[in-house]
Design goal:
Blueprint (H helix, E strand, L loop, with lengths): L1 H60 L9 H11 L4 H9 L6 H11 L1 H14 L10 H14 L11 H5 L3 H5 L12 H17 L5
Length: about 210
């Protein structure tokens, strides 16, 4: 009996340590993603500050342009005043568009997908997570990852079942795809999404 208790105690310690490690790595990745997004946001606003004087110069120049210029010459002259790549940025600014922090974080997560595979996925495959309620969405998401990666399959073959896809809001679903034209959820973004959900529930004591 003592041996069984000893083994169980150490097993629980190992599981607790793995969960602690999971929380640490998710927290670190989230912090790095936020720092990345903040940097991108600063660069975005910095570019707008630089571009606005050029826009003013362009608006002053355009009515006084040479009307004898052909299409190509007009483009060349215009882009000398206001570079072509700055037009969409300024258009977004004038339309009231704001910096998309979630998109910047998505970009970071895509670049950091290897971290999920190295530090988080092995823990998820090892720990028998339990939610305080039965038949919960989080457990279904965890089970999908366990079943897929536990069978040795790679990210490229991961397809999100329609039932689970329907349980995700449209807003969230949009950020789980690389682009608006994509039909399938990106496996790396999906994995990140699941780990974030797990982190929040572990932090609240709802998942263990």
């Amino acid at each position: 009996m003592q041996t069984i208790c000893f083994i169980y105690h150490h097993y629980q310690q190992i599981m607790d340590n793995l969960i602690t490690s999971f929380m640490y790595h998710v927290r670190r990745i989230m912090a790095e993603a936020k720092a990345y997004a903040d940097k991108k946001k600063t660069e975005y606003h910095s570019d707008l500050v630089v571009d606005l004087p050029k826009l003013a110069k362009f608006l002053t120049w355009f009515p006084k342009r040479k009307f004898s210029l052909n299409h190509d010459e007009l483009n060349q002259a215009a882009y000398k005043v206001l570079p072509e790549e700055q037009f969409p940025v300024i258009a977004q600014f004038l339309q009231g568009s704001t910096f998309d922090t979630k998109a910047a974080m998505r970009e970071f997560y895509l670049k950091s997908s290897r971290l999920f595979a190295l530090y988080l996925r092995p823990i998820v495959l090892t720990v028998p997570f339990v939610f305080y309620k039965e038949k919960n969405e989080v457990i279904a998401l965890i089970d999908l990852i366990k079943k897929h990666y536990g069978s040795g399959k790679g990210p490229s073959t991961l397809i999100l079942p329609q039932a689970l896809k329907d349980a995700i809001s449209r807003t969230q679903l949009a950020y789980l795809k690389k682009g608006s034209s994509e039909e399938q959820v990106d496996p790396h973004l999906f994995e990140c999404f699941v780990y974030h959900k797990m982190y929040r529930r572990l932090d609240k004591g709802l998942l263990c």
